[in-house]
């Protein structure tokens, strides 16, 4: 029971942490340093001496296909810009939840600390290998902080020669791996090493900063921190890319677009998963109940999707706009323009309606008089069946209080409306009263939500439905309705 409680509290913490970390990654991804745009802005030079010291530049030149440098477990690598060494160990993986423990044997990058891996130690390590210096044409390029966008190819062990260190470990080539057997039961503790590398191109383009006739990293936009490391955003401009400048730029553009979409996909999934962890913590006790358990599990996924997906998309959109201020400014200007256009149109409609009303009633109407007339039309609609029920009286009383009227004025106006409704001279139809009510309500330039609700309440009680009311409002707005003579 204690372990279940601990696991539940762990879910409450882990879920939000996963969500926040994923949202931070999505934001950083959208605001990441765009090395493609930075490379496109560099000055192209033909020889290293043409590069201005301290300025960013690009240079295209041939490369040495025989580029060679040593490895730890093999003697050397020839013909690769960089080599990635991936080391894994076969060991126990322990997964636990509220119900039971799950044990499985897996290839892992490091030994998981658990009881079944006791005494298991990893001897091989993962790393990246590269020479101390590159040369693009006549340009020497520092290998420190160098980055690439071209793809890695597998390097088969049969093409490599083991170094004394690799021989001492008794590494054996098999397929794409060097294997290290520990001769334990179930192959526990066995290790394998895989090499991949970027082949040296015949022609390459370097993008970076000039310093003392060399190519070095431009670190003026350097990014640090765990999140930036995870999404591979160093903020440095220091690249060797296969091909001439146009080809290299196309590769860099494709690479950063692909990288962004990968992070967007994984980050969005992580936000949803984090929400699922959090939701599952609260409904976990329902999972053991037949039928309800499966419903709760399905509901958890749907809730996580409905909340997590919009959160992720909102984060992506916000980060994108933050990194594209001109687009943000254009959207803001567009919104302001639309609001201004709506306001101007409302003012124009108000002026036309006001002129029609002044003509209809034979003099210029003031604000207070228009509100009196609006109330009279509303009350005359309520008296359409010759009586005023409790619900209608309540609506009229609320409307009067909204205008700051006292009970005496409200009663007097209701009495006046009843008398007007009873006279043959003012025996207009309900359509006429409803149309005139809407025109009076819109004469101040807008139809408030409260006015719409009040009109709907009274109109529905005398038989109008929402569609008819909407059509009437639209007709008045478009100036189709015909004024009723005073």
From TrEMBL:
GO cellular component: endomembrane system
SUPFAM superfamilies named in the record: TerB-like
One Pfam family here: TerB
Keywords, in A-Z order: Endoplasmic reticulum, Membrane, Transmembrane, Transmembrane helix
Domain Co-chaperone DjlA N-terminal span(s) in chain numbering: 377-470
Residue ranges crossing the lipid bilayer per the database entry: 9-27, 261-287, 299-320, 326-342
GO biological process: lipid metabolic process
Bilayer topology: Multi-pass membrane protein
UniProt keyword Nucleotide-binding present: no
Gene3D superfamilies linked: TerB-like (1.10.3680.10)
Subcellular location: Endomembrane system; Endoplasmic reticulum membrane
Entry-linked InterPro entries: DjlA_N (IPR007791), TerB-like (IPR029024), TMEM43_fam (IPR012430)
Annotated protein name in UniProt: Dna-J like membrane chaperone protein
Originating organism: Rosistilla ulvae
Source lineage: Bacteria, Pseudomonadati, Planctomycetota, Planctomycetia, Pirellulales
């Amino acid at each position: 029971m204690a372990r279940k409680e601990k696991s539940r509290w762990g879910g409450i913490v882990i879920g939000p942490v996963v969500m926040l970390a994923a949202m931070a990654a999505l934001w950083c991804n959208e605001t990441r340093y765009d090395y493609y745009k930075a490379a496109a802005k560099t000055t192209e030079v033909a020889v290293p001496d043409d590069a201005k010291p301290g300025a960013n530049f690009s240079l295209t030149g041939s490369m040495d296909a025989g580029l060679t440098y040593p490895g730890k477990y093999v003697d050397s690598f020839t013909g690769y810009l960089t080599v990635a060494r991936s080391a894994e160990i076969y060991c126990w993986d322990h997964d636990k939840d509220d119900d039971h423990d799950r044990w499985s044997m897996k290839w892992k990058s490091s030994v998981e600390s658990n009881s079944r891996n006791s005494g298991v130690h990893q001897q091989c390590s993962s790393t990246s290998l590269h020479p101390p210096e590159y040369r693009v044409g006549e340009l020497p390029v520092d290998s420190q902080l160098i980055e690439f966008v071209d793809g890695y190819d597998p390097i088969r062990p049969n093409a490599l020669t083991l170094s004394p260190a690799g021989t001492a470990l008794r590494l054996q080539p098999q397929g794409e791996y060097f294997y290290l057997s520990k001769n334990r039961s179930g192959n526990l503790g066995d290790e394998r090493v895989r090499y991949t590398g970027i082949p040296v191109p015949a022609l390459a383009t370097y993008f970076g900063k000039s310093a003392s006739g060399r190519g070095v990293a431009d670190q003026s936009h350097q990014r640090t921190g765990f999140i930036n490391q995870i999404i591979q955003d160093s903020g440095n401009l220091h690249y060797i890319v296969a091909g001439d400048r146009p080809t290299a730029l196309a590769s860099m553009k494709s690479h950063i677009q692909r990288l962004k979409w990968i992070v967007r996909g994984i980050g969005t999934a992580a936000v949803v998963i984090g929400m699922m962890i959090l939701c599952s913590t609260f409904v976990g006790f329902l999972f053991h109940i037949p039928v309800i358990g499966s419903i709760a599990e399905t509901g958890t996924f749907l809730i996580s999707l409905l909340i997590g997906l919009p959160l992720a998309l909102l984060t992506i959109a916000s980060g994108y706009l933050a990194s594209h201020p001109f687009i943000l400014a254009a959207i803001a200007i567009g919104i302001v323009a639309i609001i201004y256009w709506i306001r101007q149109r409302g003012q124009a409609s108000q002026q036309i309606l006001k002129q029609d009303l002044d003509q209809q009633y034979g003099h210029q109407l003031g604000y207070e008089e228009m509100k009196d007339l609006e109330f009279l039309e509303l009350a005359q609609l309520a008296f359409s069946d010759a009586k005023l029920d409790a619900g209608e009286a309540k609506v009229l009383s609320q409307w009067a209080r909204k205008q700051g009227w006292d009970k005496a004025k409200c009663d007097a106006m209701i009495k006046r409306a009843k008398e007007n409704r009873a006279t043959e001279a003012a025996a207009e139809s309900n359509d006429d009263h409803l149309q005139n009510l809407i025109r009076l309500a819109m004469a101040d330039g807008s139809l408030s939500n409260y006015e719409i609700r009040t009109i709907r309440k009274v109109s529905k009680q005398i038989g109008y439905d929402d569609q008819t009311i909407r059509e009437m409002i639209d007709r008045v707005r478009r100036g189709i309705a015909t004024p009723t003579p005073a």
